[in-house]
Design a protein that fits this description.
Blueprint (H helix, E strand, L loop, with lengths): L8 E5 L4 H12 L3 E6 L2 H10 L5 E5 L5 H15 L4 E4 L15 H29 L2 E5 L3 H4 L5 H21 L5 E7 L5 H8 L4 H10 L10 H11 L10 E4 L14
Parallel strand pairs: 1-2, 1-4, 2-3, 4-5, 5-6, 6-7
């Protein structure tokens, strides 16, 4: 809803494209100033200029690097004077392998980007969130609760994120800080569309992605962004420690699906 995040400052990692970009647009539309912290500053700047109409700032940030995160949060505070929410959205998904085929370097990189980054943003942003009685939001995934074949390390990171959300909610509730996560299934992003086109049968693959969702279609990122706005708004003021599915019912029932 327009205006429901008016005056808020949101630090959003991985906000230059995909789901993060949709969230940045929705936050700005709701009245927030969005600090897009992304490893690709040029794309982040284009998102701020073209999609946010300069209602924010673009920051170069490697979320796996503590000093980079500290610098980005410090720049946000210097420019905006406050911090009301951190949205931990940046993530990587590869490699698509079972555990025994995953190298130690791949395992460490996935956990550095997908999990330890939350340690970094919390460590360096907590004082400001205490002052504003703000929020922490993370982008999880349904695979963190359900599992997924040939994606062991990625699944482990998202499961860790879901558990971490509950622990952080308890630790920071005394300061009035709410901590939640949202959990999509498949969502159309440029990367997913390219992946579909790279498959042997793109039409069948797209049909599969549509039908894993009980509602019958694979959504665009705006459905996730709308939930993100809600979770950071006053309407969710008594919700904490929750990982909210934004999945079209993908996790429900016994459904046998396959590509043709």
């Amino acid at each position: 809803m327009d205006g429901e995040l008016s005056g808020k400052v949101i630090f959003l990692t991985g906000g230059a494209q995909g789901i993060g970009r949709e969230c940045a647009i929705a936050y700005a539309r709701a009245g927030a100033t969005v600090a897009i912290a992304d490893i690709n500053p040029d794309v982040a700047q284009a998102t701020v200029a073209d999609d946010l109409r300069d209602a924010g700032l673009a920051l170069q940030c490697d979320v796996a690097d503590a000093a980079s995160v500290q610098a980005a949060i410090s720049q946000t505070l210097a420019r905006c004077g406050r911090l009301d929410a951190i949205h931990n959205n940046a993530a990587i998904s590869g490699p698509s392998k079972p555990l025994h085929e995953t190298t130690g370097e791949q395992w460490d990189q996935l956990f550095a980007v997908n999990v330890k980054s939350i340690y970094h943003t919390t460590l360096h942003g907590l004082a400001a969130l205490k002052a504003s009685r703000g929020c922490i939001l993370s982008t999880a995934s349904m695979v963190g609760a359900l599992g997924q074949e040939n994606h062991a390390a990625y699944v482990a990171t998202k499961g860790a994120l879901i558990a971490l959300t509950k622990a952080m909610a308890l630790d920071y509730a005394p300061f009035g800080i709410r901590v939640n996560a949202l959990s999509p299934a498949a969502v159309w992003t440029p990367l997913l569309r390219q992946w579909v086109q790279d498959q042997p049968n793109p039409v069948a693959t797209e049909d599969f992605l549509n039908h894993i969702h009980a509602l019958g279609f694979c959504p665009e990122g705006d459905v996730v962004a709308d939930v993100a706005v809600f979770l950071l708004s006053a309407r969710a003021r008594f919700i904490t420690g929750v990982t909210l599915p934004v999945s079209g019912g993908a996790e429900l029932g016994y459904r046998r699906l396959g590509t043709k």
